[in-house]
Amino acid sequence: MTSRYYVACDLGAESGRVMLGSVTDGKLVLEEIHRFPTGATRIQNSLRWNVLGIFQELKTGLQKIAARGIAVASVSVDSWGVDYALFNERQPLLATPYQYRDARTEKRYTAALETVGRETIFAETGIQFMSINTLYHMIADVEDNPDVLGIADQFLNIADYLNYLFSGVARAEVSLASTTQMYNPTTGSWSAELLRLFNLPERLFPPIVASGTPLGPMTAELANDTGLKGTQVIATCSHDTGAAVAAVPAAEGDDWAYLSSGTWSLIGVELPGPLINEAVREGNYTNEAGFGGTTRFLKNIVGLWLLQESRRAWLRQGNEYDYAEINKLAEAAEPFRSLIDPDDPRFLSPADMPEAIAGYCRDTKQPVPESPGQFARCILESLALLYRSTLDTIERLTGRTIKNLHIVGGGSQSALLNQFAANATGRKVLAGPVEATAIGNVLIQAVALGDLESLSAMRDLVRQSFPIDTFDSTDFDQWSEAQKRFEKLREST
Ligand code: LRH
Fold this sequence. Notes:
The protein is built from 19 helices and 21 strands. By secondary structure, it is α/β, with parallel strands linked by helices. The strands form six sheets. It has a seven-stranded mixed β-sheet with strand order 17-18-16-15-19-20-21, sandwiched between helices. It has a six-stranded mixed β-sheet with strand order 3-2-1-6-14-13. α13 (323-332) crosses α15 (372-398).
């Protein structure tokens, strides 16, 4: 028996995908209908998203689905966190949205921590400190763009904004709202205190809705443009990481952690509610809102961005490698030759990633990587070592014991990184599914429409539908030696 069709529009920092999902014979079937690049554009000394171009690509994906003549029950957009669009009743877009890595937040970030203090911001939000957070972009808008803010009626984070263009209904979905560092998880509303302290105009802040809230039918204009009929728009987990964590194929129990691996490595555990205390603040861990009222207690690690940017730099020099080749070269390279601290701020937005890595190795008196294989090995080993420190700290902060690490997302395709993660952490790694975000998005639609019961029913279905590869830890002693070197490096830089 074929159930209904649901469409997930999943926007990552590198690419966007329109995915068609349906549940057939107790299994979820997911088909990629349309894929397009999303990457930000450098323009007039700033970094921006072509968000209307993305809207157009999503339309193309929806048109391709409509051309099949199937009835689509619902559609939902998810995206990376943090970034936002400003608009008003007459203007669909008032400024070109900034990309979170834009340097405009640097001085605002430092100033905000100095004037208001980490204690207040953390007590209000439970969110980790990163200069990319929406709060610091908003402060930049208040200071640099009062004219634009003055005529804006509303701000919406990117996925919520696209759901608004789809449905005409402007709502901030809670998982994405929580990434702004302006949402208070205790009151379940925007932080009135932070809005006041930073002079952020209250009228811009839309009503917040729970993950899995139907917004309404697709606008007549979009239905006409795409050819879809009777399709509902649903706010699922608008935050991609929230959708991915909802699709982690874990069984009940609390002995597992997740790693949503892509441009970022988001590593953490699912808690019943936020954990906001001094130790968590000092460790810079975060409490993002998850599906079903859960809390995604996690840490942002810079992730495969290190490799993506290195690859781009090699391409600029005329050398093109795909990820499979890079993994092969890394596998053949000497182990533990040089290590970096992926958390070092110099890796957030460097002009030339291999040069930034080489600089770190020079500064810390380690052999400087020369070949792509050496660079890639250094990146992958360092990431795996950071996974271990992070999991160990999470165990300490939450009192949990973590036995299994579920790796989902594009990064779970790297068998080498999966094996390194198992070796470094001494835990069992379960890798897959790759498309966890789109799967989470689709299945939350199914729950919202009453076709599926709960988060645990979603996870059962993911386990039944997708293969999961297992990696057991080997060479733990050798990795533990490397861990000591790694921790020393982190203390010294
Ligand atoms: C991953 C992600 C992450 C955010 C970052 C901005 O795509 O959403 O969870 O912190 O992008």
